[in-house]
Each structure stands twice: as C-alpha cells, then as structure tokens.
Amino acid sequence: MIRVFATNQGLVVEADGRYRQAPRSFGFDAIFTAYEPSRLVLGAIASAPEVPAPDESSLRAPIESQEVWAAGVTYFRSRTARMEEAKSAGGGDFYDRVYEAERPEIFFKATPHRVVGPGGRVRIRSDSKWNVPEPELTLAINAAGRIFGFSIGNDMSSRDIEGENPLYLPQAKTYAGSAALGPCLVLTEQLPAGETEIAMEIARRGEIVFSGSTEIGQMKRPLPLLAEYLYRENAFPHGAWLMTGTGIVPPDDFTLAHGDEIRITIEPVGTLTNTVE
Fold this sequence. Notes:
CATH superfamily of the largest domain: Fumarylacetoacetase-like, C-terminal domain
Shape: globular
Number of strands: 18
Largest sheet: 11 strands, mixed
CATH architecture of the largest domain: Alpha-Beta Complex
C-alpha cells in the first residue's frame, strides 16, 4: 500500500512506513494519467529524501486538475433519507426507482477550486436551513477508467433544497466549499473489503452531537459498476474522483451549524477533519 499526501511543499509519499518528498514538478495529474500509477509514484521517489510524516496543518486536498463526481442512492439508508426529504414536495418515489434501477444516479460535484482539504472549512449555503455532511468512500480513477486507489470524501448537501425539487440537485450539491477530500490518496490494486468501516462524528462546542458508522458492504452497487457508468460516453483526460454515496444520515431534526467539526474516518486513509462555516 502507498499513501500520497498533498502538502504545502509538494507531494509526500508513504511507502513501507517511510515518507519521502516527491519532486516539486510531480503532481496528481501525472498520477491520474498514468496507466500504472503505483509504479510511477515509486519511480518518482526512488532517490527522494526521507522526510517526517506530514503535519495536518500542512495538508491540502489530493487533487490537481481532476473533476469530482458523485453517485447517489447507493445505500438503502440514503434511499430512505432522500424519500423523507421529498415528502413536502408531494412524493419522492423517484429515489426508490433509482435505488432499484440498473442505472445508478451519477452527478457532477465539484471542480478543484471548490474542494476543501484536511483541516479546511466546508460551507453550508446561506439560503438553506437543512444541511448535512455525507461521508463517502471516494474512488480515484485514472484517465483510462481504471480504479487505482481511494480516499475520503465529504459530499456537503442542502437537504431542503434537494427535497423541494430534484431539479434543484446542482444547487443543493455544487457550490463553493461543498466538497472535501483527504487526508491522502491510497494507491492499491485491491478495492476496500466489504467490512471496511466508514465512521463519522460531528462535534459542536466540544460535544459530540452526532456519530454514526456503516460498512462498504452495505452498498447496493459494485464499485466498478459506478466507475463504468461515470466513464460511459465520457472522457476524463486528467482522471476523476468519484464519491460513492453515503449510508450515514443524521436524523431529520439535525442540521449543521457554523463552527461544527466534522470527522470522517476510513482506514487506511485516516481521518478527514473539517470545520463548518
């Protein structure tokens, strides 16, 4: 397993328990366009100096020119939550139909400048009254459409806007500070096992106000299928990140507040921590 961290000084690569500073010219675009990213990364640090493990304060989002996309209604809990959101709009059975359909929901999430890194500030919309984080396993897919790694993603969502009308999905999902990635990119030939846990805690003024967890095995659709649909009739010359949906949904009476701290953990990626503004 190889972990790649984006820092203020460039990429730091952890391999065999040692951290090495990659050349300044080496970035995520090179990794995401390589046919064999792991081999490329190991070659780039073959003679690189060893450095200390990066401090969270120096970390940035593991992204360069990649688009961020997302899959929805991939867990039964998400399907239920989406139907609850849409009750006031007179229904919501379309979410049930998406859950049962062969074709998954795939939507655009963020360009790189909208993505927040570890320790950064994610945002809630000023015109929304019901906002939640969505902790998600996020796939790294190279330009050829092959999954070569993963990270943690936070798909910030305005539930009241999406629930009012499904055509409002872009406004509920895509805005400045609506996505977070990190703390690193894990390069691996094997996808996470079904028992891999996704856990989230939300703290408010030092007190835990929500915690929950799920396992990747609770996902309805296979991960390669989601990647295949994303790349179907589409091209990503710099590769793409794909958030794979959430199975952790806070109760309907919960909404994020300014200053909340969101902590999402998936091993071996680590913990992605962000503050809400």
